[in-house]
Please model this.
Amino acid sequence: MSVGDVLAQARSQAGLTIAQVSQQTCIRETIIRGIERGDFSACGGDFYARGHIRSIARVVGLDPEELVREYDAVHGAPHEITAADVFEPSTPIRLKERRSANWSVVMVVVLALVLGYGVYRLVDHGASPRPVAASGGHPKASTSPAARPSPTPAAAPHPHRLVIRLTATQDCWVEFTRPHGQLLFQVYVLSGSSRTWHFKHAVTMQIGNPGGISLTVNGRSLGHPGTYGQPVTLNFGPGQKLLRTATG
Model:
């Protein structure tokens, strides 16, 4: 039996209609009917189809991973990307040859520092003493605004990093690619869990169930980036806000 036949038979044995399965999985009824007929074209790709199979299998009481393996056996397993492919720099890094220290230059710099410090101490001791208060003999505190230390400015967020945090209230699959289409990785986030990802380059993020998750990018909350069961595609750049949104 095909994956669609197994899901249809299990749904019938569980006494569920397609509409009831759609309500529990947030997957459109037309997509569920197509999957049961063995037509996965409306899913939008193999990754989306695997996510739909997992969601439907859980509702009708089947092992989702066994059905996904059956799907991969027919349609082909996804190409596995290694960590070296993800983090390999686009431009080779050239390491400069380390040169030995020029000790004559070092000695000249040290001597100049010692002489400079001696001159500073001589001038400091020869300066006129500061006025003192008549009662206590302690130096009088300066009230000049110039004498007050300037506040240290707060550190600004790093402009070349991208931090994405996802919190799921329902099961949701997520896929990350580079803007030109190279697949980085795929992940399935279960309800009640959170995941955080760090990038140093722009990414395209596809979310299968945007209504069931909350999204925060570089510390800024985006809330629910879409509706339940309607995949969306988001584009982000390092240190930037949301660049572009598209529905799947």
Q: What stands out?
A: Strands lie at 162-168, 172-177, 183-189, 194-199, 203-207, 213-217, 220-223, 232-236, 242-247. Residues 80-91, 131-147 have pLDDT under 50 and may be disordered. The longest strand covers residues 162-168.
